[in-house]
Every structure is written in C-alpha cells, then in structure tokens.
Amino acid sequence: MLLDRLPRTFYARSALEVAPDLLGKLLVHITTEGLTSGYITETEAYMGPEDKAAHTYGGRKTKRTQAMFGPPGHAYIYLIYGMYHCFNVVTATEGQPQAVLIRALKPKDGIDLMLARRQFKTNHQHIKTKRLHQLTNGPGKLCQALAITKKQYGHDLTGDTLFIAPAETVSPQDITTGPRINVDYADEWAQLPWRFSWKQRP
C-alpha cells in the first residue's frame, strides 16, 4: 500500500489547531505481522507548560517527556495504569512541548490482525458488523490493536512504519468538543473544551 504522509509542517502548529485537523486522517502502523490502520475519530490537545493537564506543566522535562520538547511530527508514548500505552503526536515547535493524544479510531486495514491482538474471543463476523468500533474506541485499545508500544517512542511520523496519512476531510460542523477525560486533577483546565470528536463516528 502506497500512502502519502502528513508533512512536518502539518504538525508545526499549536496542538489546538492540529487536534481537530487530525480527525479523519489515517493512522498507519506497519510491522512484520502486517499493516493495520484506522481513521482518527477523537483527539485531545495538551498545550504544554501552562496547561495543568499536560505532562509538561510547569516546563517539566524528564526522560518520560523528552520527546515533547523535540521537533514536531514525532511520537510521544507513555504507559498508564502500568499496562496501557497512549499514543500522542508532538506538535508546535522544538522546545515548546505540546502534543495531541489520539483517543479513538475507526478501523480500516488489518482488522483480523487487530482482533487477534485485542484477543477478542467472540464471533469475528459479529464484531466486524456490529461492534467494530470496540476494537479501537480508547487510547489503550487502539495502541494494542495497532501494536504501538514504547518501542515507538520518539518515532518520526514522516517515516515509513508509523505515520499518519491524509484521508477524509472533516468539516467544522461535523466536529464536537468537550472536556478532556481523566484530568480532574487539573482544576479549571480540566473543563476546557479541548477534546475533539468526529460526529456520527463511533
């Protein structure tokens, strides 16, 4: 499959600009097992040092957050609850640590491989027709389905194995916004409408 990649200039903008623009784009991961991909349907923007919900709040630069301080268009991946990976796209400019969390996908390619990775035990055909969105309707789920782990930390998203391709264009009227999830510790920053969802896409 020959696919274009989003250029680095796409990512070299504020996370609040990139987050809605990522909706409808195709996240692709090519491994030795095969190719898996999905249309991005939900994102969250994290705006760096001033954002209490961001890992880089206050300018924190650690081994964990180092990728966020680098050039845009790279992968920032972290572990939650000691077992689930979360995939983020680094945005803005080098030294300005912003990122966009990819929260959900609509599966496209490699669905059988996704099913195997997610260890679905029920009838595959039923899932394909009735519950397909459950494969990738959460940040940990989509990472498991696409085999994205900390091995891809810092990966250049303009490269050949893990990248985002142009796909569908989502108009502003088809985008809903809401508060980010699981960031209650961020006080008033938790209520900002920085989560973006593609309407009518589960």
Please provide a written account of the structure.
- The protein is α+β, with helices and mostly antiparallel strands.
- The chain has one domain (8-182): 3-methyladenine DNA Glycosylase, Chain A (Roll).
- Helices cover 17% and strands 27% of the residues.
- It has five helices and eight strands; from the N terminus they run H-H-E-E-E-E-E-H-H-H-E-E-E.
- The chain has helices at residues 8-11, 15-21, 111-118, 124-130, 139-146, and strands at 26-31, 34-46, 75-80, 84-91, 98-107, 162-165, 175-178, 195-198.
- Strands 1, 2, 3, 4, 5, 6, 7 and 8 form an eight-stranded antiparallel beta sheet that branches.
- Strand 3 and strand 4 form a beta hairpin.
- Helix 3 packs across helix 5.
- It is globular and about 45 Å long.
Give me the Rg, rounded.
Answer: 16 Å
Rounded average pLDDT: 92
Shape: globular
Report strand %: 25-35%
State the helix count: 5
- By CATH reckoning, the class would read Alpha Beta
Helix content: 10-25%
In CATH, what is the homologous superfamily? Answer: Methylpurine-DNA glycosylase (MPG)
From the 3D structure, determine the CATH topology: 3-methyladenine DNA Glycosylase, Chain A
Number of domains: 1
Q: Count the strands?
A: 8
Low-confidence stretches: none
Largest sheet features: 8 strands, antiparallel
List the keywords.
single chain, 202 residues, alpha+beta, 3-methyladenine DNA Glycosylase, Chain A, eight-stranded antiparallel sheet, 27% strand, globular
